Amino acid sequence: MRSLVRRDAVERDMNDEMRLHLERAVERLVERGLSPADARAEARREFGNVGYIQEEARDARGVRWIDEILRDVRYAIRGLRRKPGFALAVITTLALGIGANATMFGIVDRLLFRPPNYLAAPDRSHRIYFARFIDGSERFGQSFQYQRFLDLRRSSTTMEALAAYSARRLAVGSGENSREIRVGAASASLWHLFDARPVIGRFFTVDEDGEPNGARVVVLSFGYWESQYASSHAVLGTTITIGPASYTVIGVAPRGFAGVQLETPDAFIPIGMAAVDDLGSDWTRERATYALNWLELYGRRKPGVTVEGANADLSAALRESYLKQIALDLRAAPIGILKPRVVLGSVLAERGPRRSADARVATWLLGVTGIVLLIACANVGNLLLASALGRRREIAVRVALGVSRGRLIGQLLIESMTLAALGAFAGLVLTQSGGQLLRRVLLPSVDWPNAITDRRIALVATLSAIIAGLLASVTPVVQAMKTDVISALKTGGRDGKKGGTGGRSSLRDALTFVQVTLSVMLLIGAGLFVRSVVNVSHLRLGYDADRMLLVETHLRGVAMDPVQKLALRRALMERAATTRDIESATLVCTVPFYGTCSGGVFVDGVDSTNRLGEFVKQSASPTYFATTGTRLLRGRAFLANDRAGGPLVVVVSDAMARALWPAADALGKCVRVRSATAPCRTVVGIVESERLANMDDDASFVYYVPDAQTTDVEWGDPQRVRLYVRVRGDAAAYTNAIRSGLQSAIPASAYLVVRPMASVLAPVTRSWRLGAWLFAAFGALALILAAIGLYSVVAYSVAQRTHEIGVRIAIGARLGDVTGLVVRDGFRVVVPGVAMGMGVALAGGRWLRPLLFQVSSRDPWVFAAVAAVLIAVALLASWLPAARACRVDPATALRSD
User: Fold this and answer.
1) Closest CA to 167 of 260, 276, 251, 283
2) Is the peptide bond before 212 cis (omega within 30 degrees of 0)?
3) Angle in degrees, CA 506, 511, 514, rounded to 5
4) What's the mean per-residue pLDDT of the chain?
5) Are 471 and 383 in contact (CB under 8 A)?
6) What's this model's pTM, rounded to 2 decimal places?
């Protein structure tokens, strides 16, 4: 270390020591009778070559290799300064490849690998799932009842902490000034899973989260405290209205604390208080009600307990809990049929039994960015190879002067690694700036790390740089090993034989072939995802979402009897009818991909309708079908006289009609709703099927009943009234105006949430849109790099064949012949690359198929389009050098050699 940091002092000490040895030797020889001059000469002869001894001393320190690396780095930097264009091209190419890898790793790491911030023992912490058999198949779930949580916590002996959590959106403020924030309802035991300490104040305790009543206290997130309260400590003790009640602020969570979720909540409240607000004061005594399956459970194993042991322990506790439920509800399914068990999974939801489409696409894109890095390395390898060919005489001179091949290879490797290091830094800057936009599009509410300062992302960027540097250095190293010193010195580096620069380079052709092959694969993936997005956008959903807005009221605990609720629904409809820009409006109960009102149906002659699937109820106004654009196929829609006291009617979806009456006309048939003894409702109309929960399935069994013939109990959540409104233009542009227009029709403490239906559907199609955009972006980047690589190969070949081309023109070759010669050289690499890329894409398409929508992974139109694009790009990349070749002056070309 002293030799590195105090180099001058060490050198002075060494010189002083050498001088001391010489002086003592002179003194001894003088004592033997020699004259001082003879003694000094003899001492130098006996001592040996001082310079050589000093070099041995430097070697003995063990830092010579560091000195050589530093010298090589300085030499590489001087070389880059002499060729700024070359340096910029290489660094930019590497920055794109490394930046793409760092960006996608940051996303996939956050989804699948990085544990939540402050988690105390990630290796022993788990999200808790349960499995049970339904209709003969085992299904997984993660939503528990609160009483089930209490049973597991009481009976388990292998968990040192067990916590319940529920994410929700609740309003703060009142009236038109209200707005929704993300709220985490958590048991007090959640804090035990983390090593987090509040910035100010404290976290809520077990007593404050007691059942059935605790304390209305709230812990704010750091971001919310910073943005809404300017980081003021005076916030402690103040009250804030969240949902229907006021909460006292008792603390602020540390920066970056998101609990167990990806999205950071703005506030944390005790789960007991959240349940009382939502479900009433008797909520803890309920077990069998499905609506109360609303909690996610998390836990940490005791030290030394295995996952298998914890699974067995919790499964026994779960079965005991089911036995308690069966004792209270004799209608519950027997435990021998359900076979319930607990499965401990990763805390990260995306690693659960079922990965989301977003996570699967993001994982694919991580592999895609690796391909982009390979293409970038091949492109850089081509550039470095061209540089090495241009330096062939320099390398030959250095070898002739005694520089070893190993030393020369080390210098070339250092030059490549220097470029890779600069590319990695530029890539991190690109990740921090451009990658931030991508992350916000994918998961806008996630607290993303700083790419430059995050150690995991920086490590991936470093590893990518090392790999890129090593791969890129292969070509110049191979060229250096092939260099014939005598030939290079004789010809000045222009000899085409034995690794010279003339003619074609098989190594450069191989690199271009790799680039074309990988580019074809990426472009085919992009084309398949684009086709998926096109198919989704053209898919008929059974409703027109583009001009629809979902309006949802939140009454915030305002107590209303059935008459008042009916009056509220009527007031909203009347206000919607007079609000500017609203064409029509309808009350609804079910919202696709958002929330459904389930209800069993009973049909004469059908033993069990449940075996056919789930039946969804839609309570609707007479204006429903005009508002949604749902097409009437047969019969009629609702009329104004379809009201309470009149004949009971129902409209059914086409899929429901075909399932219940496959051989008869559904019109005029009798349907009983909710029970077999309910009054008969006559089917008066059949409409197209709506897609409610799955884009791939249009067989939704939906039945529509007039809102005037729907009881208050059948409207679902008593705290919410839902409307569709249809506007005259782009729905997103009318959000604020519709909210202001309808707000005065509801109680002052309540609030409205207005969102375009397109935004409700956006998460459903996000994975296809993400795949299309990013595959296309990375594919375009790969195509540009491949085109540049092909152009450089052909252009370099033309430059080296100037003499040959001049001779051909001089003896009468036509310009078309010269152009064809050059273009054929380019196509000699491109055509095999396209064929190879298509072959790999055909073989690997089966893994991509589950992520596509109604398009084959071997779609011939996509393959043909990609081949045409590559051929066109190759033609352009080859034609430009060919045009230059046609302008060669034969006399100048002949004299140049």
Assistant:
1) 260
2) yes
3) 125
4) 82
5) no
6) 0.74
